[in-house]
Amino acid sequence: MKTTTLALFLVLLGFNSYSAHAGDVCAETLSAHINEIDNSEDYFKTLASHSDQITPYEIVQMQKTMTARYKSLKNFLNVYNDEKLNCTPKVLATAVEIYDYSKVGKSIFANTVLRRVFMGFYKYPLYELMDYIDNYKKFTSNEMIEQTNAEIDASHIELPAGVVFHPSDKDYDPNLYALSDLAIKGTTNVVVGVAKLWGFISDHVNWRQGRIRDNQEAIKVIREKLKPLDMVFEKREFKLSNYTIPGHFGHVGIWLGTKEELVTMGIWDKEYFAPFRPFVEAGKNIVEIRKEGLGFQSIDTFINLDEIAVARIKNIAEDRADSVYEGLSEQIGKRYDFKFDIRTADKITCAELIAFSYGDIKWPQTKTLFQVSLRPDDLAVLTLDKSSPAEFVLYFKGIKAKDGGGFESKDFQQWSKLFKVKEHLSPEEVKLAQEKKEKQDREREERNEFQKMYGGA
């Protein structure tokens, strides 16, 4: 379909008797949807300009934008097809629908990254996009476009100059994935299957309890230091799963805060916080996602660890608590992401639970051959640059029983040595240093992975 600007569709209304009335609901609804498309297309162009560096925050905004646009389209169609309103010409509804989907085909589906991001979240029921692809296929088909052209001709409608519906020459058809999509899908399906099996096995293989387990002194100090929305990191050297996740820390959770704090913040009675209330009241103030799904723990059970650390996004509880807790509520029901791909927002890891909820933060990320991942260490590394939004709070390391037991408190300098990155580096330098440090290990892992999968081919 070839068009000029969306505003030309309003010109089309000039050929209808009802459009002369400024307050006409048909014209107003169409105008509102046009604005929705224009604004969303502007945003998608911005994303496309740096899609290879898209952030979790931008993925969330892309999803919200698509959800709002799809709702607007459905509202327009409901109004336009309402017999009582008698909006005419009826073919305009189909024309706008074709235009809308075709614009998305050009701005999102034609872009490799944005296409994969969309395909990674549209099936999640909360986003109300589950039937989007089916409708996209229908209304960008040559058959539909040719049929609409015939209806326009039969209605003797004079379209504005430049507005012509042609059989589409789509850059991307969800029925036929690009070759690279098929390659990634095939490879990741194998990896996901192995990761699920190995993940559940490794989580249940352990040979002792954590060195800080039941340490009331550590629990007391941690409780005194914790503030709402702090990130709580764990290391469990006694579990096999500890050795399957690259980096120092194997997991991260979120301290929701106490009931008293949440009441003071005005969060407790918010509708979106309702799912969290029973757990906080039961003393399970840590929300996390593990392989079994979203769950809650008390600090007393969480601390069955060898090492625990706390980091904080500066002033997050004071400046944007409302949006963060609402963002957390939107993650409820999502399954664990065994692909560890941050661009598939319908499934998440422990680090992604934070990244998709905490707002516009450029977290350092780990790039692999096929995807971009976010590890607990990537979140922790952000504290190393003092100009970043993150800050170090505490780091406790358990002492072996043969050496007396207990724990020792580590300072920022000792914390920074865990990641082998100098604290004066900028966030971009931190990222580059990480990538350099990880390059050889990543290449070796990918080489071994391909040898396992294709060695016998």
Q: Compute the number of structural domains.
A: 2
Work out the number of β strands: 11
Mean pLDDT comes to 81
| Largest β-sheet summary | 7 strands, antiparallel
Which oligomerization state do the chains in this entry correspond to? Answer: single chain
Folded structure, characterized:
- The model is unreliable at 1-23, 160-164 and 190-202 (pLDDT under 50).
- The chain has helices spanning 7-12, 25-49, 56-80, 91-109, 112-119, 132-139, 142-154, 179-203, 216-225, 259-265, 277-281, 299-302, 316-319, 321-329, 350-355, 376-381, 412-417, 427-454; strands at 230-235, 251-255, 286-290, 293-297, 307-313, 335-336, 347-348, 366-367, 372-373, 390-398, 407-410.
- It folds into two domains: 7-172, no CATH class; 188-454, no CATH class.
- It is 47% helix and 11% strand.
- The strands form three sheets. The chain has a seven-stranded antiparallel β-sheet. It has a two-stranded parallel ribbon with strand order 6-7. A two-stranded antiparallel sheet has the order 8-9.
- It is elongated and about 90 Å long.
- Helix 2 packs antiparallel against helix 3, helix 2 (25-49) packs parallel to helix 4 (91-109) and helix 4 (91-109) packs antiparallel against helix 7.
Provide tags for this entry.
single chain, 457 residues, alpha+beta, seven-stranded antiparallel sheet, two-stranded parallel sheet, 18 helices, disordered N terminus
Write a concise synopsis of the structure shown.
The chain has helices spanning 7-12, 25-49, 56-80, 91-109, 112-119, 132-139, 142-154, 179-203, 216-225, 259-265, 277-281, 299-302, 316-319, 321-329, 350-355, 376-381, 412-417, 427-454, and strands spanning 230-235, 251-255, 286-290, 293-297, 307-313, 335-336, 347-348, 366-367, 372-373, 390-398, 407-410.
